[in-house]
Amino acid sequence: MKVAIFFGSISDKSIMKITAEVLEQFNISYESYVISAHRLPDILSNTIKKIESEGTDVIIAGAGLSAHLPGFISSKTILPVIGVPIHCNNNYGSLGGIDALFSIVQMPKDVPVATVGINNSYNAALFAIHILATKYQYIRKLLLKFRVKKKEKLITEIKQHLSS
Question: What is the Cα–Cα distance from 100 to 86, expressed in whole angstroms?
Fold first, then answer.
C-alpha cells in the first residue's frame, strides 16, 4: 500500500513536501515524482502504469497555472486522484492559484479529481489517509487516534483562552 505524489515542477516541491510529512506521521509509504503533464506526457503515462502495477492505492497531484496534471492522471487510471492547486510565484501572470483551482475542480464528467484548497497539500494527505483507512484497519485506528488528539488539543486551547 502506498501513495504516489506527483507535481509538475520542482518549484512545487515546497508545497508538496507537506504531503510527505503528513504521510510519514502515519507511517504510510509513498513515492514522489516530478513530471510535467504538458512536457513529458509519455513518461507520465508510463509512470502511472508502473505505480498501478506496484499496488499504489491513492494519487496526490499538485499543479499550478493550467494545472493539467491531476486531470491527466485521472484520465489514465481508476485510482483515486486528489488534486492540489498550487499558487505559482513566477512571471507567467499567475492568478494567485485561482487558475489552478478552477482547472482542477472543473474536471469534465467521467474524469473525477477530488480537489483541496490552494496550496493545501496537508488536507490532500489527510484525505488520502481517510481513503486508505477504509481499506487498512491499522490506518483507521491511527486516524481515529489522531482526530481524538486534535479535538483534545482544541478543547485545551479554548479552556486556556477562556481562563486568561
Answer: 6
Per-residue pLDDT of the chain (164 residues; tens, 9 = 90+): 699 999 999 999 999 999 999 999 999 999 999 999 999 999 999 999 999 999 999 999 999 988 999 999 999 999 999 999 999 876 566 688 999 999 999 998 999 999 999 999 999 999 999 999 999 999 999 999 999 999 999 999 998 989 87
DSSP character at residue 90: S
Q: Which of 134, 154, 156 is nearest to 144 (CA)?
A: 134
Beta bridge partner(s), residue 30: 3
User: By the 8 A CB rule, do 48 and 80 touch?
Assistant: no
CB atoms inside a 10 Å sphere around CB 125? 29
What torsion do the CA atoms of 118, 123, 124, 129 make, to the nearest 10 degrees? 180
Ramachandran assignment for 36, one of left (phi > 0), alpha (psi -120 to 50 degrees), beta (any other): beta
